[in-house]
From TrEMBL:
Compartments, as annotated in UniProt: Cell membrane
Pfam families: DUF421
Name by which UniProt lists this protein: YetF C-terminal domain-containing protein
Top-rank taxon: Bacteria
Residue ranges crossing the lipid bilayer per the database entry: 12-34, 46-66, 72-92
Domain YetF C-terminal stretches: 95-164
Alphabetized Gene3D superfamilies for the sequence: bsu07140 like domains (3.30.240.20)
Chief location bin: membrane
Gene Ontology CC annotations of this record: plasma membrane
Keywords: Cell membrane, Membrane, Transmembrane, Transmembrane helix
Membrane topology: Multi-pass membrane protein
Similarity comment: family membership: Belongs to the UPF0702 family.
Keyword ATP-binding: no
Length: 184
């Protein structure tokens, strides 16, 4: 829609509003059906690819909802295509170790046993203040209580902490190379 003057931008057009409302109902219904068929992973933030898929779906929904020139059918095809690609990607990732290592980010250990791993922090473009903010969010009171901080493949930061008498089960850090996890 192109507005000839600013007052048109503020006017309410009942026919356009009705088309938008109907488009929202239809495309959201379509998304619910697709999600039920493809499974819960559709909106899980397991990997950076899943996150990108969620953003793409949101963009498609917004475009179809707001722009009456975009057909609902084309939007549905785009949604089905993106979710089908995500399902295929997840299947290949589950079946192929080589593909998984190539296509997804590996978690990075940022802190272990109360010590910040400065090199890993630098390699992930995180600043010390951002790490400390995540420690505060996790209610960490002392660095010495931090068992590990991991930058997950999704970009989330996991903070594993507890009192001195609590030990961290090594399986929680099984993404580390064996030689590295024994050192730390």
């Amino acid at each position: 829609m192109k507005f000839e003057n600013a007052s048109e931008w503020l006017l309410f057009d009942l026919s356009t509003a009705a088309i938008i409302a109907l488009s929202v109902m239809i495309i959201f219904s379509t998304l619910i059906v697709i999600t039920r068929i493809s499974g819960l992973r559709t909106f899980a933030k397991m990997t950076s690819f899943d996150f990108a898929t969620t953003i793409a779906i949101g963009s498609i929904l917004a475009t179809i909802s707001i722009d009456p020139k975009v057909s609902i059918t084309n939007g549905a095809v785009a949604l089905v295509s993106i979710i089908a690609f995500q399902v295929i990607f997840a299947l290949i990732q589950r079946k192929s170790e080589v593909f998984r290592k190539t296509a997804t980010n590996k978690p990075v250990l940022l802190m272990t046993n109360g010590k910040i791993l400065e090199d890993n922090l630098a390699n992930t473009n995180l600043h010390r203040s951002e790490l400390i903010a995540k420690l505060r969010e996790a209610n960490v009171l002392k660095f010495e209580d931090v068992k590990a901080v991991v930058l997950e493949s999704t970009g989330d930061v996991s903070v594993l902490h507890g009192s001195k008498d609590v030990t961290l089960e090594s399986r929680l850090l099984d993404f580390l190379e064996p030689s590295k996890s024994k050192k730390e």
